[in-house]
Amino acid sequence: MKVVDFIKQRREEFSRHSFDLKELLSPSLREHWLDFVTKTNKSKIVQLAGSHATASNDDAVVQTSETTSHLAAINKEKQVNTAEIQNTPVQTPAAVAAMKPEAEVLYQELTDTLGQIIHTGDWLLVDQGRINQFADVTEDHQWIHTDPNRAAEESPFKTTVAHGFLTLSLLSVLTDSVDPSKQKFPTAKMTVNMGFNKIRFPYPVKSGNRIRATTSILAVTPVKRGLEIVQELRVEIEGVRRPGCVAESVIQLHF
């Protein structure tokens, strides 16, 4: 009997019972049947794998296309932004703020003197009385400032020395900023102290020393109401090579 006829004969029985077909086959036919099933399954697996790979490749192509389009859009936007930046005019400090005529004249004058000393003050005596008064105001009565006898014995300077902050506080008078008849910037209506960028006390001012200050301009910038000036204030000690104070001061001149 042929295999095909045998299968047809058993078809109805297969539909009534759920047992496996291979249990009904003879050993020789069973081997052929298993070989047939194995080859069929392999063929289906290969087809499914090929379909999946094709679908994955299609998705990858779509994603790559979308990514390329997205990158192209970003590059185009960057090119537009770069062009806008390149076409934007660079504003000079003078264009940032509309200066009044007095401010503009002073701006040009100070710009021409950057790094140069524009003012040298008068000598001022720093005696023990002034040091003691500052100690009373600030409540800083350290013996190195207020006890001449102990300072003569124990201090390496053999005398009392002024507080560093006393030297700093004298900058207003040393730069003639408090004398209306000696104003460095007479065309300005008001001078505003904005503070200091840095302060150093290279050498102590001893009791009885005379000091004076020099002013040099480091930077000038137009601002809303006038000019902002960065200046170096250097306190000289008479007869001493090293300065008593070097400060980088920031002020604003309003016009």
UniProtKB/TrEMBL annotation:
InterPro entries: HotDog_dom_sf (IPR029069), MaoC-like_dom (IPR002539), NodN-like (IPR039375). It comes from the Bacteria. The lineage of its organism: Bacteria, Pseudomonadati, Pseudomonadota, Gammaproteobacteria, Vibrionales. Residues 114-225 form the MaoC-like domain. This is Dehydratase. It comes from Photobacterium aquae.
